[in-house]
């Protein structure tokens, strides 16, 4: 049986790409293509094994071909998100290679804020272009990502949705069946690391308009750690200048229970991000029965589908008015919640596993 080995630069709790990678290993195990999960940073060497959902240890990536024997029929699957020495390692390997893209954030978002991260993004793009000539398959978790792979030179490509699953029963607060009824739009929520491409500054400006002209009791909660200290500092200064320090909360990193509680208390999930390779929090919001209002950029329209209200204008007043309408119309909220549940079914873990098995079958069965 062909072995499939996974390679990822980073594997830490709370990272969406990492959770996807762990679920992909489970799928490959279930298909009989049992291999190792190789990492550069994180993994099972620390206290995070249980939090990551790992059923066996990870390995340092340089052990492949040394402590772990390499075979010519092996399939190596690399998770691409940023520049990494893991990619350089795989460029020099002869085995068949699959590059699965979680998308590379365009460098222009980070260059003014964190030049060192911008350099890592440029490095990742250069590596991806070189991997294109080496890979047997470029695999996107969204058609948006697949299109990006093709622009980098990947010839054989396919799309298989992100492997997402809701928390296990009992791992989060139970929601009332009437959640679509009992929520208005009094508390806005967005979940995602503080980053220029996610545009939390646009959220703050839209919320300021909503707070001033529609609902002075409204609140905004921004959940997630920071990938840019300079951007975070500017964001906090914006909140202060707009006089919103009492009604806008930046939570920082939260655990699973705190995240579930944030979804549970929110009235509407608002996403104004300009660059997402998939956007897992959209699924989390739909799972928690939240109506979703989102700006239609990058992979967001594809992930959201008909599961929420998609905007083509994210000017502050346009966003504020859209959220106000959702808050004022109980029938609309119920319809949006129902549409979100239907979209979740379309993106279920079972369906995503089936699609991954389909697109990987030729390589795993030794076909071209």
Structure, briefly:
This protein is α/β, with parallel strands linked by helices and 368 residues long.
Report what the structure shows.
The chain has helices at residues 16-30, 49-52, 85-91, 107-110, 115-132, 143-151, 179-182, 200-213, 229-241, 256-265, 280-287, 300-304, 316-328, 330-346, 349-364, and strands at 4-11, 37-42, 59-60, 75-80, 96-101, 137-140, 157-159, 187-191, 219-223, 248-252, 268-271, 292-295, 309-311. The strands form two sheets. Strands 3-2-1-4-5-6-7 form a seven-stranded parallel sheet, with helices on both faces. A six-stranded parallel sheet has the order 10-9-8-11-12-13, with helices on both faces. Helix 11 crosses helix 14 (330-346). By secondary structure, the protein is an alpha/beta fold. It has 15 helices and 13 strands. Mean pLDDT is 93; it is low at 174-182. 43% of the residues lie in helices and 17% in strands.
How is the topology of this model organized?
Layout (H helix, E strand, L loop, with lengths): L3 E8 L4 H15 L6 E6 L6 H4 L6 E2 L14 E6 L4 H7 L4 E6 L5 H4 L4 H18 L4 E4 L2 H9 L5 E3 L19 H4 L4 E5 L8 H14 L5 E5 L5 H13 L6 E5 L3 H10 L2 E4 L8 H8 L4 E4 L4 H5 L4 E3 L4 H13 L1 H17 L2 H16 L4
Helix pairs in contact: 3-5, 8-13, 11-14
List keywords for this structure.
43% helix, alpha/beta, 13 strands, globular, 368 residues
Separation of termini? 16 Å
Radius of gyration: 21 Å
Percent helix range? 40-55%
The ordered H/E elements are EHEHEEHEHHEHEHEHEHEHEHEHEHHH
- Are there runs of 5+ residues with pLDDT below 50, and where? 174-182
């Amino acid at each position: 049986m062909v072995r499939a080995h996974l390679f990822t630069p980073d594997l830490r709790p709370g990272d969406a790409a990492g959770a996807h990678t762990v679920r992909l290993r489970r799928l490959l195990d279930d298909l009989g293509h049992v291999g190792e999960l190789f990492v550069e940073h994180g993994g099972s060497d620390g206290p995070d094994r249980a939090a990551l959902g790992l059923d066996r240890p990870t390995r340092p990536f340089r052990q492949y071909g040394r402590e772990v024997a390499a075979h010519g029929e092996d399939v190596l699957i690399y998770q691409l998100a940023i520049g990494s020495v893991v990619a350089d390692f795989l460029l020099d390997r002869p085995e068949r290679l699959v590059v699965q893209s979680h998308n590379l954030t365009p460098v222009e978002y980070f260059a003014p804020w964190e030049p060192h991260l911008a350099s890592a993004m440029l490095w990742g793009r250069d590596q991806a272009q070189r991997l294109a000539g080496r890979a047997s398959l470029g695999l996107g978790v969204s058609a948006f990502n697949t299109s990006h792979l093709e622009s980098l030179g990947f010839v054989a490509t396919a799309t298989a949705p992100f492997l997402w699953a809701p928390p296990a029963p009992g791992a989060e607060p139970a929601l009332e069946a009437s959640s679509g009824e009992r929520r208005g739009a009094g508390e806005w929520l967005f979940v995602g690391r503080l980053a220029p491409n996610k545009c939390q500054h646009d959220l703050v400006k839209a919320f300021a308009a909503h707070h001033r002209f529609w609902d002075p009791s409204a609140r905004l909660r921004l959940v997630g750690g920071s990938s840019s200290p300079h951007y975070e500092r500017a964001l906090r200064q914006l909140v202060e200048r707009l006089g919103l320090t009492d009604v806008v909360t930046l939570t920082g990193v939260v655990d699973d229970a705190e995240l579930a509680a944030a979804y549970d208390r929110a009235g509407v999930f608002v996403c104004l991000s300009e660059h997402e390779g998939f956007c897992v929090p959209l699924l989390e919001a739909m799972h928690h029965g939240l109506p979703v209002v989102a700006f239609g950029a990058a992979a967001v329209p594809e992930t959201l589908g008909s599961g929420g209200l998609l905007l083509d204008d994210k000017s502050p007043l346009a966003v504020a008015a859209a959220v106000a309408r959702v808050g004022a119309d109980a029938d609309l909220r119920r319809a949006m919640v129902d549409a979100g549940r239907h979209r979740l079914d379309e993106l279920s873990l079972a369906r995503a596993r089936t699609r991954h098995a389909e697109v990987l079958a030729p390589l795993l069965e030794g076909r071209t």
